[in-house]
Amino acid sequence: MRDRFQTIRFVGVVAAAKSRRVRLSDNTFTQLDLLSLGAYYYFDSHGNPLDWPAWTLLVAHNANFLKLPGSVSIGDYLKVTGKLQAINLETRRQDEHTVAHILSAQRQQIASRFAHWLHHLPRTAPLLKATRQYLEAALLAYTAKQLSLGTLITRTRQALLPQAHWLLDDFQGLQNDLRPLIATTQAQIDQLMTPAFLITHGRRLEVSRAYHPAMVDWHPRANDPTRAQDDAYRHEQFQQIVANQAFRSLHQVPLVPQSYFKGKRFWDPQNLERYS
């Protein structure tokens, strides 16, 4: 019901790299180059550490990564500030069709409840006739999939602001009634597609090497910041991280040495590599 985007500072170890098709919070599906960030510590806006499992936090590899002196590697110590949102990871191509069916059923139920709430509002003052017509039009647009639920709620709240205060309270009651339905729908989707958290708009990037194995066969190409807006080039540079991950796996190079965890708030190394 609320905007699920938050700007948060993260610190962690790059544990994995993979191109994944994901469902975003606006119910769109897209292919992203993603880094799995192993947990060291994460901070909220007040500087308090947040204990999220290492395998649920993903970072979208964007143009800002190409501004770093070299390519990011598995096991690197990464600091990043970005937008956090809940997502789901697609495991089968038919997931998108199934999710669309689930959301269509939810949309019908929400539209029915919204129409019932609007129908039972008094048809006399203080609700203006023009306001009622505006809300009816917004509901039709939502039913026709021309508006998102968030937009419908925002427009309704804005339309009711000049009206009697109790109308906003009554609308808040409708939103409260919709929360269990939305939560149940999300739980269905989470059963179908793995839930995770995604960091987008990553900026203020800092990378330091947590481990320096003697990888004589590993020579990543340096980034070219002038090509940061080139989608194909960004993906090409990201593939180096994927290759780095495969190299470490083949030669059984540990993510970080055991000594690196001493005195730090890390999860067990096995948990850092658990995400797949």
From TrEMBL:
Protein name as annotated: Uncharacterized protein
Domain of life: Bacteria
Species assigned in the record: Lacticaseibacillus baoqingensis
